[in-house]
Write a structure and sequence with these properties.
single chain, F-box domain-containing protein, ten-stranded mixed beta sheet, two-stranded antiparallel sheet, 18 helices, alpha/beta, F-box_dom, 469 residues
Length: 469
Amino acid sequence: MHETPIPTTLDALPNEILIQIASHLDLGAPSIAKFPHEPSPQLTSSDKTPLKTLSRVSWKWRKIVLSSLFYYSRIILDKEPQWVPIDARLIENMQGHLTSLSDHETQIYQKMRGKFKSSSMWAFDESFDDLLINLCPVHEEDAFLKSVPATLWLPRLPKWFTHFTRFVADYNLKHHIRSIVLVADKEYELSDIPSADVPLGRAVSEIWSQIFSHLEPLRVVVAAPPTTLAGLLGTQVLSSDVWAFDMKMHYIELVQPRSSRADHTRESNCRPWDSALVHRRPWTHLGYNEGSSITAYSTYEYHLKQSPKMLYLILLRLAKEAQDCCNIHSFSFYAVFPFSTNLTTVIRALHKVKTLRKVQFQLAPGDENILLDARDKMGRAQPRDLWMEWNESYKAIASFLGSYTFPNGAEFVSSDCSNLSLADEVDRLMSMLRERGTGWRKTELGKWTRDLSLDGAGERSDTGPAVQM
């Protein structure tokens, strides 16, 4: 009688067991853990990559963990400038190279020469350049345009993206990719050139069309400098004070549930379903991290400065264009000492979104942030001003929690409560809400649940005057 040999190596185990073993090495996405941290291009970086290491052990292990490796994927936009501003001087220069121009360059030359001839202005006037300037993409065969030193940058997918999508299709990974983080670390510098709006819109539309035609992520994060993020979101910065805040990067996070697509499609009228990211899918969660405002505290009359307004405009767009059936249910906001006036602007937009069931805020540096101890970053900012704005901001949040029509069971989370001294202040404000008759029941440190049965309880037991916030 022959006995069944006992497996002596991991590779001899059934795939089902190997998959279970590999699942314990899935540490989750760095972009989830780091999303509340002060924004930086390192959002997706991690020193620990056990699944990648395991995939290098053998071909069998690589096959086991392949789909897991791409749960959380990152796309870094191409950094090379690929657009040329076409003006009269450049066209005049092209005339001396007509025999060597590519077909694309010849088309540009002929089109612009025709435009110059039809204009009553002299082609070399400075005002002419501003009026009729065109931005043209540089194609691979455009030797002349490649030699132009004044090339400009517009967002575009990296060259490897085509190979990546082919790989995804070959290995049937489309529905295994849960999250996409789109990273851009270049500042968009053409916001003051009106003629750049059209090529920017086309470039951004192409980015999202390519991503969503080949991938189906439940979560999309965009990490980019404010002006670049505004372009990628199809909105505006709406602030002339960006310089004062020196915000290197903002994050936005959009999440959809697994089951949402069946109920909400382009055939429905629940949203425009246009080229903007905010309408590409029926997102139910929106998270935003605008980083630190501390630099602006060193400026003259800092309280008059306005931080970038992309979040405000996106919330207004959702409130106006998305039906309640597919609008956001959850909202989170992270910042480091934002001005209370700027936070109040965000809250004003939140009031217009009628579907919120959970809100989360963090307005002070997290445990990982040593910003308050960095003299070079603090500059002339006074700590008392920072904490005064923090306190005024939480008063605005408390007012929102007391006036917005939250359903029973809605949640409020303050991530600042990990600091016990700040937790005491948030507790005090929430107690004031309770005393004024709005029922929020504390469930754990930094978390409260809307309890309609408690409404009015504080008013009935309070014999003193109402507390003003």
